[in-house]
Amino acid sequence: MAKRELGTRTEQYTDGDIAIKIRGLHKSFRLPTEKAFGLKQAIFNRLRGVKGYREQKVLKGIDLEIKKGEFVGIVGRNGSGKSTLLKTLAGIYYPEKGEIIVDGNLVPFIELGVGFNPELTGRENVYLNGALLGFSNEEMDKMYDEIWDFAELRDFQDQKLKNYSSGMQVRLAFSIAIRAKGDILLLDEVLAVGDAAFQQKCNDYFESLHGNQTVILVTHTMSNVRKFCDRAILIEDGKVKLDGGPKEVADAYENLWKK
Ligand code: ADP
Fold first, then answer.
1. Atom of ligand 1 at shortest distance to CA of 84?
2. Of 30, 58, 62, which is best to mutate to test ligand 1, by the most ligand atoms within 8 angstroms of its C-beta?
3. Where exactly are the structural domains of the chain?
4. Alpha-carbon distance values, 72 to 7, 53, 258 (Å)
5. pLDDT tens digits for 129-161?
6. Any bridge partners for residue 189, and if so which?
7. What tens digit of pLDDT does each residue of 11-38 get?
8. What is the end-to-end Cα distance of the chain in Å, rounded?
9. Cβ of residue 81 lying under 6 Å from some atom of ligand 1
């Protein structure tokens, strides 16, 4: 079968001032439309030229450059392609066409708790997740109390993870993930869930990143765009609709619903 993914994603470390360079990035997904029952049907479909899938173009030629130390907000309606962009930057999806160059150690906070095991206790999962982020046991020992305090889940440490609510699991995963020290952080704000106090802690964390690391934050909260971002990008239908100052882009986002 012909290789569909022809784009490239490379990582390099330089002393240049660009953290992420994206050129002509395209990404589509194949959605099955017809089920082939058995080999005979599959061969028959092929001979008839029936594809059995529909191609959904999600990213349609993205060009972007993000500077080192920049805090960039990515905004846009649901389904516009923001998460797909983040996942392609993270190397979770392969670019179909175009080029991505990442300069620095990139830490994605996109699918938190991927390594969680529901049958293990919270304590065991903290060590497991930490190991996946590259921390040694000794490093985890030092961070252990901070992790539980940030997540506000101290009393649940020895319970099996399957007894946590999904919100509690995300809080724990978020609290572990923010210990990872990357040059470039990809963050999806939906992961900063919780009550007002927890939100405030997440906001303090975002604030602490400012200027120290390169941050790309997918968000629907325009007050956060105005407060934390140096720059923002409005994605619409898989393309960059607007790339500018946080206020200008936040205003444009809010105006999407006023037409
Ligand atoms: P956003 O983050 O802006 O809400 P997404 O990037 O999640 O948008 O989704 C954009 C489109 O891509 C949606 O129509 C979604 O259904 C589709 N999509 C995303 N991931 C996949 C996938 N793994 N397989 C098929 N379609 C997908």
1. 6
2. 58
3. 118-182
4. 24, 35, 24
5. 888 888 899 999 999 999 999 999 999 999 999
6. none
7. 999 999 999 999 999 999 988 776 666 7
8. 46
9. yes
